[in-house]
Amino acid sequence: MPFLYVLDDDNYWTTISEFRKSLREIQIEQLIFIDEVAIYSTMVPQRTLVAPGQQPLILVQQPSSYSKRFDFIGAINGSQVITCETITPEHRASLGVKGFRQKMINQWLTDTLAPSLNQLGTKNLYLICDKSSSHNRVAMMQALRAGKCYCVKEILHMPTASAKYLSPLDNPLWHSFKETIRSKHPLILNDIPVLLSQTFYSLSTQQIKNAYRKCGYGYEIDPCYDRP
Fold first, then answer.
1. CA gap 61, 215 in Å, rounded
2. Which domains, from first to last, does the chain contain?
3. Where are the beta strands (DSSP E) in 3-130?
4. What is the pLDDT of residues 153-190, one digit of tens each?
């Protein structure tokens, strides 16, 4: 069913409502969201200052269709950034893939996320992600265990086509993240991985808490408040 029609489906919004209610029973510091996003080397600002009577113009070194793609993955809980990683075009080409694949994500879980979660010192964590084919819950849990992480109680999939409403990263943090990157135009190719990490780690506690609230994780919020 096309997403356009799903928005008016009672079952779709009931599923979102029930998912939100189930997470409200858990402290937001125990809710770990992960998500991936693509960033391009040419991301021009969407706004610019123009003198009266002049046409808007932004100079770029190459068209966006020829820009290089960097794949970024990040993890947060309800109050802080936890960790992240950037896959460069060269690394992706060496692996012969076009984006994050299950093996890559699971390796990141073992090598990077697992030790970061252990450092939190919090038990009974819930790892939450979308239903991408790269997010196999059994394989992901095995990857965490391989990294000696035993504090994740369960891995949860958000309902289909619901990340816009349920993932603090998907909405609105990635938007803020991308706008900050745009503001740095033009980007120096070799500096992009460091810039992405710095931008992600600069997300404030208040920004993250606001994003969790926007996704309906609060007892005082109507679980269907954002139904169109």
1. 38
2. 11-40+68-214 (3.30.420.10)
3. 31-40, 69-76, 81-87, 125-129
4. 999 999 999 999 999 999 899 999 999 999 888 889 99
